[in-house]
Every structure is written in C-alpha cells, then in structure tokens.
Amino acid sequence: MSAQAPAGQRLRRAPLPPLARYILIRLGISALLIFGVTVVTFLLTNLVPADPAQAILGDRAAGNPEIVERTRQELGLDKPLIVQYFTYLGNLLQGDLGVSNQTRQPVAQSIANVFPASIELGLGAILISVVLGLILGLVSALKRNTAVDHAIRAISLIGISAPTFWIATVAYFVFFFKLRAVPGAGRLDPWLQPPPKVTGLYTVDALAAGQWPVFVNALSHLVLPSIVLSLFTIGLLTRFSRSSVLDVVGLDYVTAARAKGLPPRTVIFGYIFRGALVPIITVVGLAFGSLLSGAVLTETVFAWNGLGQYAYRGATKLDLPVIMGVGLVIGIVYIGINFLVDLIYGFIDPRVRVR
Q1: Nearest 5 degrees, angle CA 17-CA 286-CA 222?
Q2: DSSP string, 125-186
Q3: Of 59, 57, 80, which is closest to residue 69 (Cα–Cα)?
Q4: Are 262 and 272 in contact (CB under 8 A)?
Q5: Which residues have C-beta within 8 Å of that of residue 169, sequence separation ≥ 6?
Q6: Which residues contact 143 (CB under 8 A, 6 or more apart)?
Q7: At 118, is the secondary structure helix, strand, or coil?
Q8: pLDDT tens sequence across 268-313
Q9: DSSP for residue 35
Q10: How far apart are the C-alpha atoms of 90 and 289, rounded to whole Å?
C-alpha cells in the first residue's frame, strides 16, 4: 500500500529526539578529538631534541655508536616517523601503550596502578572546591559590595595567587610536624595493608571490604592534600560563580519570580542559582581535569604515588612510551569530562534539548 500511495503520504521514519541527536554528535566529536590527541601527543613527544636511545643507555654505552644504533633499531626509532605513528596507533587500538624504556613494565599496567591514586585525590579536592566555591560565590554575589563580599573576594584572591607547592610545604610542616593533627605522607600508614583492590581507591575499597580502620586511616591521609590541592580551585570557582550569579540576578525572570511573592530560598536556588549553573559546570569540569593532571607538586610533597609523579619520572628520564601514555590518558580525561559536561547541559538547560 505504501508503494501505491503518493510520495508525500508515505510513512517516514521518526527523527531522533533532539537530545539523542545532540549526544550522538558529541560522541562523534569526542572520537575525532581522541584521534587528534594521539597525533599531537606523538608528534610533540618525538620533537623533543634528545635521543631516547642514549637516555636509556649508560654513559659508556651511549658513547658507542654501534650500541646506540642497535638500541634504536630495537625500539623502532630508525623507521620513518609516519611508520612509527601507525605502529603506535595500531598498538593503541589493541590497548597497548608500549613498554617503559626504564622499568620495562607495560605503560598501561603502570598507569592503571597509579591513576586511582590521582582520581581519589582529585575527587576529594573537587568535592571540597565545589561545595566551598559555590557557597562562597553565591554569598559574595548576594552580599555584593558589603564587607562580607570584600572578605570573600580577598580570600579567593589569596587562594588563586599563592603557589601550590608553597602551600603544600607549609601545610605539611605546620599540621604534621608541629601540630601532629594529620598523619604523615603516603596514602596509608606504613603498618597498614591496602584493602583488596576493586577500584584502586583506598577509601572506597576499604568500605567495600568492611575494613573501617583502613578507611579512617586512608581518609585522614586524604584530607590535607585534598584541601591544599583545592585552594586554587576554590578561589577560581568563588570568583567565577560570583560573576555568573551577578549576571543572572537582574534578569527579567528573576524579577518576575520575586514579584510573584515566591520565598527567597525558591528564588535563589530555583531561579538564580539554576540560571547561573551552566557556565559554572564548565569551569568545574575543566578544574577537575586540571586537578587530575596537574597535581605533580602536591603528590611529590605528600608522597602520593599518582599519575603526576609517574609522568614526572618519565619526563626526567626521557621515557617516550611513558610520556605518550600519560599525555594520551590526560587528553582522554579532558575529552571525557567535556562530554559529561555537554550531557549535563542537556538535562539542566531546556534550550539544549530542543535545538
């Protein structure tokens, strides 16, 4: 019957809902970005003006051209750059990030061992940052040009300006050496065994195993480095959320909500805060990515064996597989966080769902 009906009356497939189409587009863009990250990571790593083969060998062996050339052949560094890239890309598609030139351990396995530590530290820091940053920013905007506003802005400026490594060193000296208010460095006390590994996050794994002493100890070790790492993000979120709330507080729909006689709490959280939330989410996502990838100094001060320390060791020893592996993981983290932020946009902002 459909074949005999006029073309204009034939049944057509229902189009995808706007939100589903939005998600598919973002997935396609994310896949292209990941491919771009592999290209950029590979090219930048291989443009380093040094010979990885000589970095692997000792001083005496590095002075022997025959040994250096043989090492380059073993590593595949004697092949054209385009051949090296496609070999690298083929290995990536199989989940192989290569083998560390220094430790001879698979890079993927090493990253899987250290990445949960960075995730745990980053989650602790971003949780503190979001709670305090949004509260301080909202209060500062609602108390605009008052003593409270000036005090909060001064505190946020200090958090942004103070160097993280200096804050970490001072905080560790004061709260551990002087006050003994927090435990020492590391993720656990030396006499405690890590909980059975499920996620790699000691607090979560200890809870899952019912090991309450280990959970309390891991949480106590997490508090100070999370606070130190969150200070910059708190200052950033405070200033940004204040600005975002001020942009919304004078809009017509907020004025109309107040004119209706709605309770102040409903106006603040249902209208002002929700309207200011979309740009704030963007900053939170970027801040979380930077916390995961930029915690090298904090991890060093607190002996937190995470991704930052692993990347630093690989960079100082010119370990190309490690450098490329960490760069790829960090790039994927940023792309994944941006994808999640885009999804959250679709649920918070109705305009995204209908476009």
Answers
A1: 120
A2: HHHHHHHHHHHHHHHHHHTTTSHHHHHHHHHHHHHHHS-HHHHHHHHHIIIIIIS--S--SS
A3: 57
A4: no
A5: 301
A6: 149
A7: helix
A8: 888 888 778 877 888 888 888 777 766 777 888 888 888 888 888 8
A9: H
A10: 27
Q: What is the largest CA-CA distance in the chain?
A: 89
Q: How many residues does the chain have?
A: 355
Residue type, 16: L
- Calculate helix-pair angle for 307-316, 107-142, nearest 10 degrees: 120
Amino acid letter for position 355: R
- Exposed / middle / buried, residue 324 (Cβ in 10 Å: 0-12, 13-18, 19+): buried
Q: Whole-model pTM?
A: 0.80
Domains, the chain, in order of start with CATH, read 18-93 (no CATH), 108-348 (1.10.3720.10)
- Token pair 């435990």 is found at 183
CB 89 within 8 A of CB 79: no
Spatial separation of the C-alpha atoms in residues 283 and 212, rounded to whole Å: 35
Reference 176, options 62, 56, 302, 57; nearest CA is 302
| Tens digits of residue pLDDT in 101-144 | 777 888 888 888 889 988 899 889 999 999 999 899 989 988 88
Cα 165 from chain centroid?
19
d(CA 23, CA 138): 31
